[in-house]
């Protein structure tokens, strides 16, 4: 049986094993997919010892995964971050399916037209790096990148190489940035503390807010978005299923049907929220 894993820290909460098990049942492919806790220091050794044929990588390891690949896809190169590892003998090829996952969720599941949209991206870590190139490719008008560590926002903007559309800004600049059509929280702020305060003027009645996290991690930003009057406030569950399907395609050559798997996870997540 072929073996796969998701590496990250914390990783116990990850829905990826469940999603890949559902895809495997649906497509009749025999595989095992487990979650392995690993941080910056022990990731390479744990990956080598795991004996996996392929892996997903979640926070905080996407830039680490990029560094250990012998080759990477064009989209992973632009992102400088890898979320999918494909074994090639003793070496790894890296790809990044996060961006396509987000764009598919927003455009196909939620029916949004991203063309000419003014977009705010909060965060410049692995997830932000993954989604930024795909948003630009989807035809957005402009991308403002705001990160706690300003140098990381600058580095991401430089890597994207599109100065006419990409604008790195400091957190203190937020009050002067005006209203956005799409606001994306790609920080992990609520995991280790609180999301810094955001001005209400960033959003309006036509704005859509997306937190790339889901469950507890998405509650604070989505509550802010509703209070700020956004038309829609979406979590990262749809992106999670779509990026997983793209990884599955890379490993097995088959793209599973994501709708039933998303519906199952959505029902479970909604039941947890209404039980609170
Ligand atoms: P990283 O560790 O690579 O990056 C974390 C980011 O969050 C950095 O920009 C960091 O800023 C910022 N941050 C952390 N704490 C705070 C804080 N207290 N205040 C402000 N900013 C903060 O993580 P990832 O980019 O891999 O993941 C980010 C989020 O996206 C996670 O919630 C993850 O679960 C989610 N995600 C969801 C996916 C999906 O499919 N739905 C896929 C990938 C990620 P700094 O640079 O200053 O440290």
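Q: What amino acid sequence fits the structure above?
A:
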């Amino acid at each position: 049986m072929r073996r796969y894993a998701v590496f990250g820290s914390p990783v116990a909460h990850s829905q990826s094993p469940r999603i890949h098990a559902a895809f495997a049942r649906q497509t009749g492919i025999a595989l095992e997919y487990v979650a392995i806790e690993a941080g910056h220091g022990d990731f390479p050794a744990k990956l080598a010892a795991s004996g996996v044929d392929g892996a997903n990588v979640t926070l905080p390891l996407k830039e680490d995964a990029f560094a250990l690949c012998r080759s990477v896809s064009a989209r992973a190169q632009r992102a400088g971050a890898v979320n999918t590892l494909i074994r090639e003998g003793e070496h790894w090829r890296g790809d990044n399916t996060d961006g396509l996952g987000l764009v598919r969720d927003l455009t196909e599941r939620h029916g949004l037209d991203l063309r000419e949209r003014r977009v705010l991206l909060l965060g410049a870590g692995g997830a932000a790096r993954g989604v930024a190139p795909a948003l630009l490719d989807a035809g957005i008008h402009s991308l403002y990148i705001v990160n706690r560590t300003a140098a990381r926002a600058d580095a991401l903007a430089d890597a994207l190489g599109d100065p006419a559309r990409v604008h790195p800004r400091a957190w203190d600049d937020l009050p002067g940035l005006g209203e956005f059509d799409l606001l994306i929280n790609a920080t992990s702020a609520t995991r280790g503390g609180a999301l810094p305060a955001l001005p209400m003027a960033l959003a309006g009645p036509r704005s859509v807010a997306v937190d790339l996290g889901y469950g507890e991690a998405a509650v604070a930003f989505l509550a802010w978005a509703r209070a700020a009057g956004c038309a829609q406030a979406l979590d990262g569950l749809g992106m999670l299923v779509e990026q997983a399907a793209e990884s599955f395609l890379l490993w097995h050559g088959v793209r599973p049907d994501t709708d039933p798997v998303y519906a199952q996870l959505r029902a479970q997540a909604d039941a947890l929220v209404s039980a609170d």
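Q: And what stands out in the fold?
A: The pocket of NDP is lined by residues 59-60, 62, 98, 101, 123-128, 147-149, 152, 186-189, 192-193, 196, 212-213, 217, 236, 239-240, 243 (CB under 6 Å).
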